[in-house]
């Protein structure tokens, strides 16, 4: 570490960095902070090195504070040897003191000697010092901008407790030091020492001035302009009132004497009124600064806030006559200096007063008072990108700054190379398909597409084509700007609805889309959703799936999700919180950041940063603001803007800072609630502006400009100009092609001003007007305007319809069209809502008056209800269809197929029976039972028929056209897997019937299912190559018909046989393709089956065991979202079989699946109960092998919970049951595991030969009583 005198540092650092540059200012601030803290600690007794000597309150003609300040520099690796003989006299004094030399006991004698030395040196001393600096610089290489600290050495100081007057005087003296420091070496004008008395309370009694220098124009410095301004009456203690001293943008200080114009060459050497031997502490004398202005500092480039700080320090010498802005304590100076260093853009840089005088107060949202919460978000984000599965939710009341805090994190994400995609849910646009999620990705595609010749754009487009191919069409229906990015037009491409679950398919496509995006950018992807309390169920499902699948992204980058919500408007049963719970089960962590209203000190910080003033200066204003707003951040910011517009808070062109009228602000009456405040603000505007804002509020928080412009012309309303006024008032903003309310509460306030009785009619009028606009052209793909129109009509409701029955049916047809568009976008929840609204607008006799419209609405509503599992509503819709359908062939059969699918979710046996009944009505009879010989004969006959036809002939066979037969094939395809689970003896007859119908009436996509199952039957009977032929034909039929609905199932069946024909390695690769095909069709079941069999086949291929283990862990882990969903599905199925079928067969299985689910979810108490029930049920129902399995799984549960004794007991009992069953390989494996895990000694001490029984007396389960009932 290198130590140099302060003046030496100022001169040298100015040459290394331009004087008053940001670097120089930063270093100077560090020096100032270090000195201020040192003096402040000494005054408060906080110094850590024993009794601290305080410097004398004032510099004198012979004692300058600057000479006793040294700067400590960071070491640059070179040691600087200081030769005390080569130092200048002033530097020798300060350096000697800093090296530890004890000050003289005779302080007055020492000060007298210093003064004599300074006087004798004169001009020669200055020349000598300049020569010394040149010699020193030639010897050393010091980086003067690496400032570590500074210190002032108190030669002749005191360790007595300072009085209030002495504290102020030291602040004044330090202000003189800062003047020289921040000006880059410019010395302030000599202070005039006058004889006076000064009581402890700071009162100054003027005495006669002595030793005044005369004005000399030849030697005039920058202060000569102010000499003539001195004209002060003794009545005010030598100082003008503050209102009269505002001149040239600075504060001026006055005394009853002229101002010396000659700039001092050595510290205070030109003027002094104290004899050389006079003690600094002599009573009755204090030096009072003459007239000091900092305007020269401003012209030198010193920031005005720093100039004001120096002024307020120097003003302390005026005692009780100092201004309210002046300092009372050194700690206040330290605090302001630290703010300037830490936040220079707010507290150090000059305000653009010209701009502010035109634009008014700039409301940069109050996010800076949420530093702790912001750090929490940053930490969660960092953990996420480092590999942890984590998301963050910001909760709080409306107006507490949730969105602002989230956007602050967004700036951080983008600044660090990440992607920040954002969307906002709207209470009045909930029916619009994927409104917020789609807009987030749509804006991203638009931004990327507009970057011409962007490498990222080309890379993303190329990878999307490779990964998704033709399926990009379905994604483009939700993300229209994807067409621009890919430079392809998807509007007229024919879409295939042949899909198991279009909603699951869309989830998969979104996941692939995000995976591609993440792989093309170095930074991680963050998805921010605002106002999730208004999120639609489809968007929530996509967000949940994105989070689950992000764990398996190829580039190992996790998606970071950030959400904001009003916690007072959503209960624990809200779909969003349920989604959060579901992903938490998979190992995600959720950082919940709760925002509350601000306390008094936080409001003070907020106002301080908004006005760019020190917190101490705005305390009185912030207290009033807090009293009126109760600390609501939105209310605070809006109130300050309102005060600014009323002139109560204004920018001063002379003082270059904000000023305010406290009395008028205090007397201003305000509503207690921010919503009422907004209503009051809107009411103060002109009638046109109020009407325009109310109009805009009907469309939600934001609205397309096309809607405003179209309705303005159609309805002959003045909207654009009034909205421009609202923009000027800060109530509305216009970004791109959309209008936005500045806050949701503003939209709610404007909407509340509409009479409730008129709202419905206004929504209806706006919606019908939009429908009649020529701009709405669905053929051009403009869906947003159409959806907006339909949603406005639906907000109006049937009661707002003014017309005959045709008007009602017209609106129903609009909803039918909107529902179809939503289905194309795979948003079945929104589609269902549109269909339900369409049904709501139907008249009482609609089945007679509009049969086709009614039939289509109900039919499509039933399909959507099935997809989103609204089974109760589905049952009601199907009953309506069955009662009113006119045609069995075309109407009832579709309804029956939907009903059969619905029964598959909950009642499989009933579903099978229902399908068999419908098939019999179609003339397709399936025998209830048959002998094995009859079954074999039927298989042989069918095989002989198919063998007689060449493959090419089969593939080019006629296409099935008979509607009844097509429906029969659909029911048979649905029966295949269900019959295999419930009554396997019937399955061959279902398969053969599909083959027979295909050969007699032609081929269909369902024919592939029949051939695939038939190939499996033939292979099982011994003809493997024959079976391979039929499964190969089945795959060709899938490709011919482009049937995604059955692709996963057919590929799985075909690959099972392929293992016996082609190399294992080749066959297993088909599993990967099969999984992708299945999941792309939304077929979660068969995607899981492909993944499991692929992983289980790896050991047979000689693949590295570590790779095999990783694949198996990934496939079998219950935290995999596919398996979690499938496990839950089968748990529900087995529970249904237990309730509807055999309690004996399925009870223990149901208990065990519940136990595993509870264990995965962290519900350990219920898991323990269910394990015990599963073991007991298996024992009572004589399933020894399942009793062993339940005991083993329970052992794993107890082992992971840290209960070694319980784990060992269950493992040992499982060992005995496996032995009883005869599973000797399992017995050997489990025994080795027990020994390895617990050790021989532990096993021998706690378990005897595995014969101990497990007791379940605590269970209140009586299986036999249940069966008897």
From TrEMBL:
Superkingdom in the source lineage = Eukaryota
Note the Pfam families from the entry. Answer: AAA_16
Which part of the chain is the Orc1-like AAA ATPase domain?
Answer: 369-560
Annotated Polar residues bias:
82-105
Q: Which residues cross the membrane?
A: none
Q: Where is this region: Disordered?
A: 82-107
Protein name in the entry: Orc1-like AAA ATPase domain-containing protein
């Amino acid at each position: 570490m290198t130590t140099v005198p302060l003046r030496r540092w100022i001169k040298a650092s100015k040459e290394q960095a331009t004087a008053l540059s940001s670097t120089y200012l930063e270093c100077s601030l560090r020096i100032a902070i270090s000195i201020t803290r040192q003096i402040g600690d000494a005054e408060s007794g906080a110094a850590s090195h024993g009794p601290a000597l305080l410097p004398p309150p004032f510099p004198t003609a012979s004692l300058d504070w600057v000479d006793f300040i040294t700067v400590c520099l960071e070491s640059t690796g070179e040691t600087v040897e200081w030769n005390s003989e080569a130092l200048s006299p002033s530097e020798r004094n300060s350096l000697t003191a800093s090296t530890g030399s004890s000050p003289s006991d005779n302080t007055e004698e020492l000060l007298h000697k210093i003064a004599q030395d300074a006087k004798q040196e004169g001009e020669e001393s200055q020349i000598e010092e300049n020569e010394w600096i040149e010699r020193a610089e030639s010897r050393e290489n010091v980086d003067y901008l690496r400032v570590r600290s500074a210190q002032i050495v108190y030669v002749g100081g005191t360790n007595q407790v300072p009085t209030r007057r002495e504290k102020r005087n030291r602040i004044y003296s330090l202000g003189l030091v800062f003047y020289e420091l921040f000006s880059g070496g410019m010395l302030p004008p000599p202070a005039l020492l006058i004889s006076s008395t000064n009581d402890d309370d700071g009162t100054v009694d003027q005495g006669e001035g002595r030793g005044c220098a005369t004005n000399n124009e030849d030697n005039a410095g920058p202060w000569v302009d102010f000499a003539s301004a001195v004209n002060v009456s003794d009545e005010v203690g030598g100082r003008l009132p503050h209102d009269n001293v505002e001149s040239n943008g600075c504060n001026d200080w006055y005394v009853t004497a002229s101002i010396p114009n000659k700039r001092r060459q050595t510290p205070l050497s030109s003027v002094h009124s104290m004899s050389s031997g006079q003690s600094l502490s002599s009573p009755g004398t204090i030096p009072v600064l003459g007239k000091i202005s900092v305007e020269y500092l401003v012209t030198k480039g010193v920031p005005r806030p720093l100039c004001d700080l120096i002024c307020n320090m120097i003003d302390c010498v005026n005692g009780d006559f100092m201004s309210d802005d002046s300092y009372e304590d050194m700690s206040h100076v330290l605090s302001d200096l630290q703010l300037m260093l830490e936040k220079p853009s707010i507290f150090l840089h000059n305000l653009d007063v010209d701009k502010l005088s035109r634009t008014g107060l700039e409301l940069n949202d109050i996010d800076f008072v949420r530093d702790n919460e912001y750090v929490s978000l940053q930490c969660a984000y960092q953990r996420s990108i480092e590999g942890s599965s984590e998301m963050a939710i910001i909760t709080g009341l409306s107006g507490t700054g949730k969105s602002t805090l989230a956007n602050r994190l967004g700036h951080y994400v983008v600044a660090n190379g990440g992607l920040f995609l954002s969307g906002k849910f709207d209470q009045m646009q909930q029916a619009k398909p994927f409104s917020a999620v789609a807009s987030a990705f749509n804006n991203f595609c638009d931004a990327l597409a507009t970057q011409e010749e962007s490498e990222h754009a080309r890379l993303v487009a190329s990878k999307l084509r490779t990964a998704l191919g033709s399926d990009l069409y379905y994604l483009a229906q939700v993300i229209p700007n994807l067409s621009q990015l890919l430079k392809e037009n998807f509007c007229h491409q024919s879409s295939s609805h042949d899909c198991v679950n279009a909603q699951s398919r869309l989830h998969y496509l979104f996941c692939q889309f995000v995976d591609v995006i993440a792989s093309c950018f170095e930074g991680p992807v963050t998805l921010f959703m605002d106002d999730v309390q208004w999120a639609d169920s489809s968007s929530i499902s996509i967000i949940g799936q994105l989070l689950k699948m992000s764990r398996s992204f190829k580039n190992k980058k996790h998606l970071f999700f950030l959400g904001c919500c009003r916690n007072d408007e959503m209960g624990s049963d809200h779909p969003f919180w349920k989604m959060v719970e579901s992903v938490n089960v998979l190992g995600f962590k959720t950082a919940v950041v709760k925002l509350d209203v601000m306390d008094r000190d936080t409001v003070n910080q907020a106002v301080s940063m908004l006005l760019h003033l020190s917190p101490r200066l705005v305390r009185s204003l912030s207290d009033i603001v807090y009293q009126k707003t109760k600390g609501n951040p939105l209310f605070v910011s809006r109130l300050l803007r309102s005060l600014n517009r009323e002139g109560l808070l204004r920018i001063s062109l002379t003082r270059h800072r904000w000023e305010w009228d406290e009395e008028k602000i205090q007397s201003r009456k305000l509503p207690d609630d921010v919503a009422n405040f907004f209503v009051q603000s809107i009411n103060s505007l002109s009638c046109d502006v109020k009407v325009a804002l109310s109009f805009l509020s009907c469309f939600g928080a934001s609205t397309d400009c096309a809607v405003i412009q179209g309705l303005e012309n159609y309805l002959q309303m003045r909207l654009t100009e009034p909205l421009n006024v609202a923009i000027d008032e800060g109530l509305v903003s216009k970004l791109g092609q959309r209008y936005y309310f500045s806050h949701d509460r503003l939209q709610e306030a404007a909407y509340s001003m509409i009479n409730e009785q008129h709202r419905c009619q206004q929504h209806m009028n706006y919606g019908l007007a939009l429908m009649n606009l020529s701009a709405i052209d669905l053929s051009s793909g403009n869906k947003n305007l159409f959806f907006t129109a339909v949603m406005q009509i639906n907000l109006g409701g049937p009661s707002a319809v003014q017309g005959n029955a045709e008007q009602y049916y017209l609106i129903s047809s609009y909803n039918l069209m909107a529902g179809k568009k939503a289905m194309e976008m795979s948003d079945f929840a929104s589609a269902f809502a549109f269909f339900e609204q369409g049904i709501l607008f139907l008249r009482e006799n609609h089945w007679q008056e509009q049969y086709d419209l009614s039939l289509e609405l109900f039919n499509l509503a039933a399909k959507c209800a099935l997809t989103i599992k609204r089974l109760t509503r589905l049952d009601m819709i199907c009953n309506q269809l069955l009662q009113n359908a006119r045609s069995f062939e075309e109407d009832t059969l579709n309804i029956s197929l939907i009903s059969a699918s619905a029964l598959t979710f909950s009642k499989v046996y009933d579903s099978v029976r229902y399908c068999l009944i419908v098939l019999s009505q179609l003339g397709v009879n399936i025998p209830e039972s048959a002998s094995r010989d009859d079954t074999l004969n039927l298989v042989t006959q069918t095989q002989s028929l198919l063998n007689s036809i060449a493959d090419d002939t089969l593939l080019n066979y006629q296409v099935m056209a008979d509607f009844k037969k097509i429906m029969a094939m659909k029911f048979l395809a649905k029966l295949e897997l269900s019959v295999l689970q419930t009554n396997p003896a019937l399955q061959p007859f279902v398969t053969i019937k599909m083959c027979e119908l295909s050969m007699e009436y032609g081929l269909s996509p369902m024919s592939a299912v029949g051939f695939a199952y038939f190939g499996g039957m033939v292979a099982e009977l011994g003809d493997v190559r024959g079976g391979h032929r039929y499964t190969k034909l089945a795959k060709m039929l899938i490709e011919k018909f482009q049937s995604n609905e059955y692709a996963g199932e057919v590929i799985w069946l075909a690959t099972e046989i392929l293992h016996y024909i082609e190399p294992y390695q080749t066959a297993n690769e088909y599993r990967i393709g099969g999984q992708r095909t299945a999941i792309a069709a939304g077929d979660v079941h068969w995607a899981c089956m492909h993944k499991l069999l692929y992983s289980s086949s790896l050991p047979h291929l000689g693949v590295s065991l570590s790779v095999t283990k990783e694949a198996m862990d990934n496939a079998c882990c219950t935290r995999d979202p596919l398996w979690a969903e499938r496990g839950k599905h089968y748990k529900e199925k087995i529970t249904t079989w237990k309730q509807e079928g055999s309690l004996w067969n399925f009870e223990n299985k149901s208990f065990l699946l519940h136990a595993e689910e509870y264990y995965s979810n962290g519900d350990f108490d219920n898991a323990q109960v269910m394990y015990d029930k599963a073991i007991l049920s298996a024992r009572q129902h004589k399933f020894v092998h399942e009793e062993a399995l339940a005991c083993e799984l329970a052992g794993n549960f107890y082992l992971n919970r840290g209960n070694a004794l319980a784990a060992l007991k269950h493992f040992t009992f499982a060992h005995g049951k496996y032995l009883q069953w005869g599973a000797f390989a399992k017995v050997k494996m489990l025994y080795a595991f027990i020994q390895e895990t617990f050790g021989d000694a532990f096993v021998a001490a706690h378990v005897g030969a595995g014969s101990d029984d497990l007791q379940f007396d605590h269970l209140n389960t009586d299986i036999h009583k249940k069966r008897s009932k």
